[in-house]
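Fold Annotation — chain and its backbone

Encoding — discrete vocabulary of local shapes
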Amino acid sequence: MLLSSQDLRGRPGPKNPVVSLAAIAAAMLAAYACNDATSPGAKSEATPNAAPAPRSAANAAVAVTPGVTTLCKYGPGATFQVRVGVNATPQAVTVNGGQCVNVATLNPAARDDVIISVVENIASHYTLHHIVMQHGTDAAKTITGTNSVSFEGAHGAVVTFYNNALVNVCKAGTNATFQYQVGSGDSFHPLSLNDGQCSTIATLPPPAGADDVIVTVRENTSASYKLDHISLAYGGLTPQTITGTNSVSFEGVHGAHVTFHNTPVSTPRGCTYTQGYYKNKGSGVLPAGNFYLSGQSWRSVLETAPQGGNAYYILAHQFIAASINAKSASTTPAVDAALSAAAAYFAKATPGNWSVGETYSKDQLTGWASVLDAYNNGGTGPGHCR
């Protein structure tokens, strides 16, 4: 079951590692506490409409009844395909953990050629460990390396599938790193996953006692990505979407498939050059024609020293470099604001009337120049080109 924050009080781990979803918890309890296994509906030669008879595999060993095939399950509940007769259509059967279901009833006196096959379906939340089959009066035998068995049904059989629970963590959207804990006494372990990659972090056998192997998975924060949501498929239940947290905790013995969905965070692009670079090496990328109302080319403006601290040229040098840098390199809001203000200024000013009739102050112009200088030199923005 999925745990609420109160359920985890006194357990080590993150402060708020669990999403409290009462509806999910109720559904999980209903799914794993009740005995609602279904029959493939195979008709009996002796009793054509016999109903399935679920029993508890946790009790004493189930005895073989001639003509009756009983399917039992230890570990997480699973689904199966049962075929009664070589040419029959396979029927779906679900058996919860700790339960047994009669899946076929034949007349024991019938001819000895009704072949029954049982195949366990593959799922992400469990893995088959082994099968134990007792056929007729034969001694029980352990079967490994396959997820299916076939036998003559008239003698009767008890077939028990032993599954281990799997806890898988998957990544969608970006690469990411995690911390996970299996059991309240376990330490947290690091985990790195690439986009589209999954990893099994726990393989748990059926519990000997209470369902108390608590698994906690939390995604580490990063400047390169942000978590959008978590998808939790607990046991064989429908996946649930979890938001507002980077951590989830649950009982691991039913198995789970946890997917963290991330979106990338935009990163700075390109790099920047100084005004000296464009004057000495990069003049080929300077615009043609005059620089605004200056009466000079863009290169000529760059080569003109700001005699007497002329604020027009101080700002123009940094503006020219920054405006070209911004075509291929990412900017910042402050840089965008300074470029916009400077462009409006140069549309009115000239070197000889740098204040535009005292509309602009020297401090104002050099303030914009300082913002652009920091950008061009790599102090802000994506960094200086090396």
Notes: The first strand starts at residue 55 and ends at 56. Residues 275-376 form one domain. Residues 1-53, 55-60 have pLDDT under 50 and may be disordered. The chain is about 20% helix and 30% strand.
